[in-house]
Amino acid sequence: MSQQFQINDGSLSFDVTGAGLPLVFIHAGFVDRRMWETQVAAFSKQYQVIRYDMRGFGESSPATGPIDRRAELRHLLDQLDLERVILVGCSMGGEIALDVALEQPDRVAALVLVASVPGGFEFQGEPPADMLQLFEALQANDIERAVALQNQLWISGPHRQRADVDPSIWQKSAEMGRIPVTNQTMLTADMQPLDPLDPPSITRLHTVSCPTLVIAGSLDDAELLRGNVLLAEQIPHAQRIIMQGVAHLPNMEQPDAFNQTVLGFLDDAVQTISK
Description:
This protein is of the alpha/beta class. It is built from 10 helices and 8 strands.
């Protein structure tokens, strides 16, 4: 059941399922908490599963200006009185999870970073043509074109076309993605986020102290994969998994394989934590 609490000049929507060690799912920056629907049933058998919509996404209030996404997550944890959690974040959600783990290491028991790069990562080369067109569509408020370009960038990825993707995943992603496009969330809240972690996480990866799993889809953008490798190489004892035949949202394209991989990692991590 969806719940809400007030945060600054709006509200944040979330839901809680199951019991046990709290596990928070943090969505990517073009969809919302529904991207984790196929994970809730599997993970809530062992964990208290929390999902939330960032401001400007899903059922949460639209953003009215730049947002401190770390503070947003901290507010949620405080609202639920959660002292120690597992964080599973995808893309921007993974960057947020990593930043919070660095800022409040005693609060994060384990990290799963999906299709993520660290804050401060500098992309090399020319940006994808679809990305440039996406910004043009957002600035022109061309909602349907922007939604389609988001899906081409992140659901299909650079190596596939729409016809190569499960139509139900394309449709669901478009449904979720239409909300932040309509709300102008990227341009309003996240182009220049409020109070970014300083120094950025890319300079602190060696200080991550919790068990960490890094996951990427083999069909994701090459620069994102390079950043993903950097996470695995510089975070102490991090494990890295490449899921074949998927792009930016591997948990939606191959939910069974994703669930098995992450639950297996967490089984080992929780044993390490409890020692």
